[in-house]
Amino acid sequence: MSVSLILTCAGKGERAGFNENKLLVDVNGTNCIKKVLSAFIKSGAINQYIITANKNDFNRIKEIAKTAIGDGAKVVLGGKTRTDSVMNALKEVSGDIVLIHDGARPFVSTRIIKDCIKSAELFGSGITAVPSRDTVARGEDCILDYAGKSGLYIIQTPQAFKTDKIRLAYSKIDGTFNDDGEIYKRFIEPPKIVNGEYDNIKLTYKEDFELLKQCGEYRFGVGFDCHELVPKRNLVLGGIKIEHEKGLLGHSDADVLTHAIMDAILSGASLRDIGYHFPDKDPRYKDIDSTVLLKKVLTLIKEKGYALKSISAVIMAEKPKLLNYIPKITQNLASITGLNEENVGIGATTLEGLGFVGREEGICVHANAVLIKL
Ligand code: CTP
Ligand code: MG
């Protein structure tokens, strides 16, 4: 059986109070529509995509749909209400089964999508819902009626139907309805419940959008660097000048800490290393401030859809004592990367006189980075 998806994106997002449709608001380089589309693409279960858009957002949504899905995606004008929007979209459906989903629910799982489709195949419908965890009551200033919680469900989307049945139901509409399941119930039969997930929330208010920043796949990066200590050079660590009679030798400012951190960030995003991006034969990088390169690295990962969550590093140096410099270095790296200071963990150690670090011939740094693929 072929499956169509109607993704409703034609609202205005008034309750969220952004100055544009909440679904298009940039969150760490992505947005709600991109997130929700990638959830359905990942499921591999959808044959046809139909997206509702209001006039204002039509071209932007078309562009996003084209990038995510290709030319096959259909964007149709929505209506005044969500029901009107779905009614328009239903005309375009070619699948035997249609899933109707809120563009504002980006956390939908492949399991839910597949269970809805299975339920529609077997029973004609599948409405995602979770049992109410809390007591539900009706009222205004005072509670007028307790509905309890046993046998009560919180309704979510997607809601899946045999296409001919939901089309028939929509053709009979005679009033206002909460959602597609209610329309199906009124004109066809009581729809079947599919187990939802409590995480499958609809982003309604501004604060809900904080959740988008947290979700994604975590990646861990590792970096290592080492430079020789020589006289007549500055010693710079994390962009901070350190008082010492020797400094690090290198083509750039030889900021070994920033170099190891950049390599950690690049490796977490599978973007090779600093030698690949900033070759040490290139005259453009002669004596360059390495924190300038760090900013370029942050742009590179952002372009690939990654956000940096934390960095940590251990500096291996026999001398000088770095203890008093650590807060300044931490502060500087936090301000460059845009991380909170508590997500920048910098430490230092001696090597107890052992090896080339112990003989004060060089300084090494081992760094880690945590990234999130949005
Ligand atoms: N929607 C739609 N057409 C409408 C109204 C809403 O396609 N005329 C979509 C929204 O874009 C959203 C989903 O239906 O993805 C659920 O609606 P809701 O969360 O209420 O979003 P908005 O209507 O945009 O928000 P608000 O009610 O706060 O204005
Ligand atoms: Mg609305």
Layout of helices and strands:
Elements: E1 3-8, H1 32-43, E2 48-53, H2 58-69, E3 74-77, H3 82-90, E4 97-102, H4 110-123, E5 125-131, E6 136-139, E7 143-148, E8 153-162, H5 163-171, H6 180-187, E9 193-195, H7 210-214, E10 217-231, E11 235-237, E12 240-242, E13 246-248, H8 256-268, H9 274-277, H10 290-303, E14 306-316, H11 326-337, E15 344-349, H12 355-358, E16 362-373
Parallel strand pairs: 1-2, 1-4, 2-3, 5-9, 14-15
Antiparallel strand pairs: 4-8, 5-8, 6-7, 10-13, 10-16, 11-12, 14-16
This protein binds cytidine-5'-triphosphate and magnesium ion (MG).
What does it look like?
This protein is α/β, with parallel strands linked by helices. It is built from twelve helices and 16 strands. Strands 3-2-1-4-8-5-9 form a seven-stranded mixed sheet, with helices on both faces. Strands 13-10-16-14-15 form a five-stranded mixed sheet. A two-stranded antiparallel ribbon has the order 6-7. The longest helix has 14 residues, at 110-123. The two termini are 32 Å apart. The mean pLDDT is 96. Bound molecules: cytidine-5'-triphosphate and magnesium ion (MG). The site of cytidine-5'-triphosphate has 22 residues, from helix 3.
Bulk shape: elongated
Structural class designation: alpha/beta
Summarize the helix and strand pattern as letters: EHEHEHEHEEEEHHEHEEEEHHHEHEHE
Cα Rg: 28 Å
Total of DSSP H or I helical runs spanning 4+ residues:
12
Distance between the termini: 32 Å
Question: What composes the largest sheet?
Answer: 7 strands, mixed
Strand order of the largest sheet: 3-2-1-4-8-5-9
- Strand share of the residues? 25-35%
- Mean of pLDDT: 96
The level of helicity is 25-40%
| Bound ligand species | cytidine-5'-triphosphate, magnesium ion
Q: Unreliable runs, pLDDT <50, ≥5 residues?
A: none
